Structures are given as C-alpha cells and as structure tokens.
Amino acid sequence: RYVLLPNKLPPKRFEAHLEVHAGSVDEREDEQGVAHLVEHVTFLGSKRREDLLGTGARANAYTDFHHTVFHVHAPAVNSITGQPMLPQVLEALEEIAFHPQFAASRIEKERKAVLAEAQMMNTIEYRVDCQLLTYLHEENALGCRFPIGLTDQVKSWPHETLRGFWERWYFPANVTLFVVGDLERSTQETIRLIEKVFGRVAPGRERLPAMAAAALPPPLPLAAAAAAAGVHGNGNGNGNGNGAAAAAAGQQQQLGPLKVRHAIRPPVEHKWGYGPLALGEKPAEVKVFRHPLLQHFMLSVFCKLPIQPMTQMAHLKQLLMLRIILSVFQFRINGRYVTGQPPFLYITLDISDSGREGCAVSTLTITSEPADWRGAVAVAVQEMRRMQRHGLTQGEFDRYRQAILRDSAQLAEQANKIPSVDTLNFVMESLACGHTVMGHRDAHEAMSAVAETVELWEVNALARSMLTFASDYGAEGAVLAAAAEEAALEPGRWPYLGPTRCTSIVACIPTYVDASGASGAIKFDPSPAEIAAALADPSLDCSAAEDVDLPDSLISTEQLSQLVSERKPEYVPVVPGSGRCGVTHGPCGIVQRRLSNGISINYRYTDNEPRAGLLRLIANGGRVAERPGVGQFGRVVVGSRTLSESGAVGPWGREQIEVFCVANLVNCALEADEENIVMDFHFSSVDGGMEAMFQMIHMFLESPRWEEGAMDRAKLAFLASVKSVHKSLERATSDRVLDSMLGRTERCFRDPTPEELEALTLDGMKAAVSELLTSGNFEVSVVGDFDAAELESLALRYVGTVAPRPAPQPLFVHPIAFRNPPVPERHQTWHLKDSDERAVAYIGGPAPARWGPLGYFGELKALSGPVRPPLQTKAMMDAAARADAESSRRNHPLFASVMLMLLTEIINSRLFTTVRDSLGLTYDVSFEVTLFDRIRSGWFMVHVTSHPDKIYDALNASVSVLRDIRFAPVNRRELARAKTTLLTRHESDLKDNAYWLGLLTHLQNPHVPHKTLECLRDLQRLYDAATVDDIKFVYEQFNFDDDHIFTCVGTSGECAPEPGWLVGWLVG
C-alpha cells in the first residue's frame, strides 16, 4: 500500500517513510529483540542508503511494538548531481526492505551497537516506563516484548534467526509507503514511479510443507514467475524480495498461498475496563516497583478501552467533549497547586488512543514527595470525584469549548504551514487507529458543526462514565448496579461504554527516604493495601466546584489612557543621537524600533504560523548575575521561578490569569537561563489575542506579585533537582566534569545547594530580580503573522508606558576561569550503586567564545564600522586577493560561530564512523560546543555510552578521534557534506518562528555588540565561503592533550569495576 499527500512545507523537500507492519510484538519467545536488530542490519547495510549521504537527505529508522519504520527526509533535487531525489530515495527504501545483504560483518557490528544501545537507554526513567507497560498489558505480549529485547538473546542468535524473521514479515502486503511533501511532480507521475520501483518485487507467499511441494508441477522459470507475480501479486503488484535472495526456494514459495498482514495490529487481546464484571472479579491490585534511584512517589491508575475509530460526526463530538473534560480537570488541579503548600508535584489526566498498543488508555498520574503521598492521592481522587459526580460549571464549559474552537480555527488557517514530517506522522497514527484522515480545514468545519450541538449535560454525562475508573475504585460492583438502575430511568445518564473501571495500578517509589520525606536513607515501604485504601477512601469530600471569574481585560481603558497621558510614550531613534526616529528596516525583513523608556523592539513578519506569533521579552541577567555566598547565590534563578510559580499580577490571581490566557489563546513561560531572564509568549494575532498578551506584559513589568507560597514551591522544585542529580548517571558524571573545569566554588552554572536555598528570602530575591527587570535592560523580539501597525501601536501603549528605569550599571557578570587541577581530579571515575550495569563517559575542555576574534576572551567593544560581506576563495585568485578573501571571513562577527558549527558536524561524523560504526564500542557518541552571547567563554563536551567493560575503550577512541584531526585534516568532501547538512537545516528552520526568534534576540543588546543585522544577512554566505583552512584555523584553538581536557567515567551496577581497569586507558 502507499499513501501520497502533497505538502508545501518545507518547500522543495519531502518525507518518504516505509512502514513494515512488524515489530517486537511479532517476535517469538526466543526472538526478543530480533525485529530491532533486523532494522539495524537492513538499514545500515544498504549501499543505496549510504549514497544518500551528502545529498542533503537525512535517513534513519526505528522499531516499536507494532511496526518498523525506515524514513528519509530529502530535498527535491540532489545537491550533488542536480537530479530529482525521489527516485533515488525510493530505490534506497526498496533495497533496505526487500534486498538486505545480511553480511556477517554487518550483523556482528550491529549486534554490538544494539547491546550498547540497550546499555545507554536503560535509565531509571526507561525502567519505570517498562514497569508501567508490563502491568498495563499484563495479559498480553505488549507487557513483555519491548523493542530493545533481551540482551542475552541478542548476543546469541545465529545469522539465520535474523533472516528468518525478515522472511516472515518483510513482504509487500505487509508494508505501507508514505510519501508526503513538495514533490515537484504530479500525483500520477509519483504513482508510476512507485509502481516501477516496488512493482518489480515478488509477492510474499507462505512456505508449503515438503509433501505438498513435492506434488506440485515443476516451477516456472524465474522470468515467468516474476511476470506472473506482477499480474497476480498482492498489494497492487508490489512484491516481496524474499525470492531474489534464494531463487530456487523463492520459486516454490511463490506457489504457496499469498501472505497477508494481520487484520488487527498489534495482534493482541486486551482486558477492557468496562462492561459487566466477570465472576469473582476483584478490583485491580496495586503493583509496586521500588528502586533506590527513584526520588518521588508516582502512582499511575490505568483504564484500557477499545479505540473508537473516528468515522462519524458523533465520534468527533465525543472527542470534543473529552478535550473539554481534560482541559477543565487540569485547570482545577492547577488551582489546587497554587493554594498554600500543595501535597503533590504533578497530577495529570490523559485519555488518548494508542496505535502502537491497539487500545485507548485513560491514565491518572500522581507525583509527590514520598512523605506527602497520602495527601497527593487524596487531592487527585477528590478532583476526579468532583468532576465525576458534579461535572463542569457552565462557565468552564463555555470557556473551554470556545478556546478549543479558536485553537481549531487557528490550526485550520495553518493547514498549509504544517511540516511534512508532522503531517506524515499524523496520517500514520490515524490509519493505525482506524480514524478517517481529514484536512485541517475540513476537520475544523466538522468540529464547529458538532460544537453547536454539544450541551453541558452531555459533557457531564460523559465525564460520569469516563472518570469512574479512578473516582470509584473499589466500588465497581455498586457503581455498575446503580448505573443499570439509573440508565433504565434516564438512558443518556451513562453514555458511551457506561461506567469504566481501573484495569491496573502501578506505584513507582524510592526504596529509601530521609526524615523530611525526600529521597534518602530511611526505608520507604507503603504497602499495596495502604495505597489501594487511599484510592478508595470514601470520606473524601467532593462538593461542586465554584466558577472562576474571567477578567475582560487586565488593565482598563481609563487606566491605560491615564498612563499614556502621564508618561507620554514615543518611539525614539534606534541609534541614540542619529536623529532618525522612523522605522529601521534591515535585511531579511527585520524592523527595529526603540521606545522612549529604553525598551528596544525587533520584529519580523512571517506567515510560518498563520494568525499566530511568538514574542520574547529578555533581560540581561540570569545565572551569571548571581553573586557568590549564602543568601546571595540563587537569588536570580530561584526568584525568576518564584515569579513564574506566582503567576499573579496586580489585583489578579493566578487562576484568573490562567483563565484569561485560555480565553485569549496566550501561552507564557518565564525562566532564567545562564545569561538572561526570558519571558516567552505564544499568542493569537486575531480576536484580541495580541492585545491580551501586551496587557500581561505591562502588568508583569509594572505589578508582579511576590508570594511566599510561590517561593516555597520554587525552592522545593530546585531542591528536588539538586537531589536528583546524584541519582542520574549522566547528570552526575557531566557535573563532575564541570566541577573539575570550573571549580566547585565556581557555581554560576549550577543549582543552589540545599543550604543556599534555605538562606534565600523573598525580599532578597525580589531585590535581585527587580534590579534586572528594568526598562533599560529589556529587549522585545516578535515574529509572526501580525499587522505591523497594530503591533507598534500596542507596544507603544502597553510597553511604552512601563516606568522608565535605567539598566543596572555595571551589570554584574560572574567571572569564569578554567582550572588546572591535579590529575586525579582532572581525570575522574566514580560508581553509582544500581541494580543494572551501565556506563557513560564525558570529555570536556575550553572552547572559543561565540563572538569576537578567535582566542580573545576579553570584553567586546562595539564594531567600528559596517560589516564587510565574506568573500569566497577562488582557484584563480592571486595571493593578495586570496588573503583579502580570508580576511573578510575571519574578521566577520559570525566567523567563530559558523566555523564551530561546521567543525562540530565534522567531528560528530568522524566519531560515528570510528567509535560507533568501525569499532562497535557505542551506540551513541556526540561532540557539542556550549557557546554564550555575553559570557566570554565556552566549552566543549563529548558524551559517549557503552558497557562498563568497554567504556574506557570508547573514551580512548573518542579522544583519539579528536586528536587525529591534527594529523588527518578535514578534507573538502567532509566540509561540503557538513555545509549541505547545516544549510539544509537552516533553510528548513527558516520556516519555524522559534528559529527566527533566536536570530532576532540580542540584535539591539549593547552587551552583545557584535550581533548585528549584517550577521543575518551574511549567515548563508559565510557557510558557502568556508574553506578547509578556516576549519583548521578553528580546530587549532582547541587543545586536546591530557593536560587540557577533563574526563569523567561513570559506571553503575551492584559492584564498582576492578581498579585495574583504570590503568593506562587514556591516550598519552
């Protein structure tokens, strides 16, 4: 089967995904993990896949319970040959699926890679997911057939096992091809191409028993057999390559019955959470998973139901009602969270279809500190009962129905702006669930039509049925009996499937806690009976909810007019003293303005997301503005989190602000990063959404509310983060490298310690953050589909009337200095006690700064004049012209940033080729450079995972790759491939508003003087002009010898590795 769908974003690119309807659930008892290994071998063993490298295409593959998918993201035209890419991509996919080589060397190489992948992904989070799935699907193979498989089996399979699985499942009738994108050819041409490439593959046929085969007439010649397959084969003539590999056996197989794929995917039976109770059926038992590396109490309550295929308007109506129910439930939980000190960290309710699991799953998840688990469960059960018993208020119903419709309308407007990969994944999942696939405009029209027919009593009735699984745990029989009586009198009271019931409950808890209830040293042992009793507690009060008033606006027209009259906002010259107050239009359509109170504005119109936009309000500050010392350190970052937790401004509480945001389609996030305090908004640019956002900005800057409760929640969040570091092999290992590089007292990139958190006061944080939140320290950047005149008018009235206050002078910046510690501290090892063996290594060291001349780490001054465009070095240039071109590149403000990105891409390619592919020491190895805008420093980090007995080899090989570039310099082919990859990504990212927001940020920041409009103008030119000598020049800024790199190896397991492993592992 094939699915074609034209899609114009990104332009001149397309997605081709080949879905084989076979995954881990199709494995036999002795094949656990073989589907995943076959995916590796078929994909990475393909020569035609290798030919895609350097063309601008990206290819990958993955295996899940129900399928294996090979996918390619490609340009319409090959960047090397200039030929259309679709034929080449289809040929590669056809070879991958139907003509694999199964070379012994490739199988052994990928066996090592899969074993390394199993080590890498076996984090405590992954183990929790496995436990949840194990108990959720206890009655079928989904509970035990995880795609990664069993490592003992992976190690031992003969090559024939892989080929046997492939022969059973890789046949045309079991495959679906998806092609979505800007194909630059007609649908009929594409269909003919698909038929040409895949139609030549012979159909899949079952093997005949030996006796039956002996009775058959002589087989046809191969050519005749292939011709017959083309006429009579399954799947529109699409065939099966099984016969190509073994001709004689293939001829006999063709005489057997045609293979067909399972009618039900995945092929399992579920225990459903509805309908009459079986004889003697008891409530679901609580299953407990304890582990020392867990930090919080997490309880998951599940209910499995059949997927309702979306094929009728009534089904769409039910979906709308479910979305309203889920939205209101989460709003109510948020309301409980902001009142006082909540006993929970998170409570979430999800009801969704799962194509990979072949069922719909309702999930109530409760997360808390261990000491608070009873209170957390009580809150969740109370709110489930409140909604199940009393339903929604009229205000909640009206508000969220309208919000969902507005969101649907916005999505419909963006129908032609959704990336092909997202569209394809949506189509693939819809088909897996049996849903009718609709275009977004058609879906919105249908949603609008059913919304007119939805009434509050219908939503409340659906909530009554769907939420019973958690609201009435332990009373299933009584609820069913009462529902039967009520339904007889009032048929619509228990719609859809009637009362639901819990099918499984899983508690994931730490083995030990400390005296305060956080994870520590005292045994934590709530019994399954205690947890079940808390869920079934009949005493929990659940009176009907009260509605929250929706503010029409956050600031009245009269108040705003008075502020405008008093403060007289106006636009002033972008460059002080220039006398030019008009709009400054830069390259790429960027407009720059400046308000009289000092706030600078950059904006750019795009149609990437119709009727919507992004705004970033940024203030210089962040972690680097933290002053050392107890009572000082942490004031900015924890203070910013406190403001975010508060969510209240002026006279409006957090609940009212949330309602205001929901009604106006405004989303807001506030946080402090290393260098800045950042407030990001996603807003609707129609129906008053943009004005609502500017009202929020004005109130936040003028009247933020500092609340003790918000401070307590912020501190608890940071405390949990600090304590979780030591239970994460990856985070703790990278932390040790940072400690070694920057010093344990150099803490500006770290979270505050528990002692520093305890010492922070609300007044102290308010003073530190308020010092940075001044009009002279702000920059606003806006990207989206908006009217420029409206944007400027709103910014003038709402942002221009913020009280003028100068930026802090001087702006404190924590000094950064790399240390030269003794060898035992420079090259560390450590061990985390764990039930499972894992290993990870990090290599770090200094890197050049993003801005300024390479090798210079001092303060930057403003550029002395206009930026000269970079020139390409050409073959016929004389020495003077060549030197001039080189100077134009290396003196360009973007030089360091662009060359570091190219070098990073090249190093990552070499690491993969050597450490992953050639040596088979790891599944995942990566090189990354951390760069800043204001901080005059940077560092690199290599991250590599492996088995504990291979981790030192993997680390050694990674260090060798870094050093070998000096002796095997980057060549033109490597550079060209890196350029293609990064430019392709850049061109694709230009269709993303978030990417544009990053490009605009700091364009008027005096503390980032080298980021100018010319940087955006010349970005692509500099990539195109880069030479291998430029890359060599940047590489020489690094020093990868033993005295300049910092390493840490972290292992986990019951016992630490033998000390002998630590000797002589590092290359000298």
UniProtKB/TrEMBL annotation:
<dbReference type="GO" id="GO:0046872">
    <property type="term" value="F:metal ion binding"/>
</dbReference>
<feature type="domain" description="Peptidase M16 C-terminal">
    <location>
        <begin position="159"/>
        <end position="204"/>
    </location>
</feature>
<keyword id="KW-0645">Protease</keyword>
<comment type="similarity">
    <text>Belongs to the peptidase M16 family.</text>
</comment>
<dbReference type="GO" id="GO:0006508">
    <property type="term" value="P:proteolysis"/>
</dbReference>
<dbReference type="InterPro" id="IPR011249">
    <property type="entry name" value="Metalloenz_LuxS/M16"/>
</dbReference>
<dbReference type="Pfam" id="PF00675">
    <property type="entry name" value="Peptidase_M16"/>
</dbReference>
<keyword id="KW-0862">Zinc</keyword>
<protein>
    <submittedName>
        <fullName>Uncharacterized protein</fullName>
    </submittedName>
</protein>
<dbReference type="InterPro" id="IPR011765">
    <property type="entry name" value="Pept_M16_N"/>
</dbReference>
<dbReference type="InterPro" id="IPR050626">
    <property type="entry name" value="Peptidase_M16"/>
</dbReference>
<dbReference type="Pfam" id="PF05193">
    <property type="entry name" value="Peptidase_M16_C"/>
</dbReference>
<dbReference type="GO" id="GO:0008237">
    <property type="term" value="F:metallopeptidase activity"/>
</dbReference>
<feature type="domain" description="Peptidase M16 C-terminal">
    <location>
        <begin position="760"/>
        <end position="982"/>
    </location>
</feature>
<dbReference type="InterPro" id="IPR007863">
    <property type="entry name" value="Peptidase_M16_C"/>
</dbReference>
<keyword id="KW-0482">Metalloprotease</keyword>
<keyword id="KW-0378">Hydrolase</keyword>
<feature type="domain" description="Peptidase M16 N-terminal">
    <location>
        <begin position="3"/>
        <end position="124"/>
    </location>
</feature>
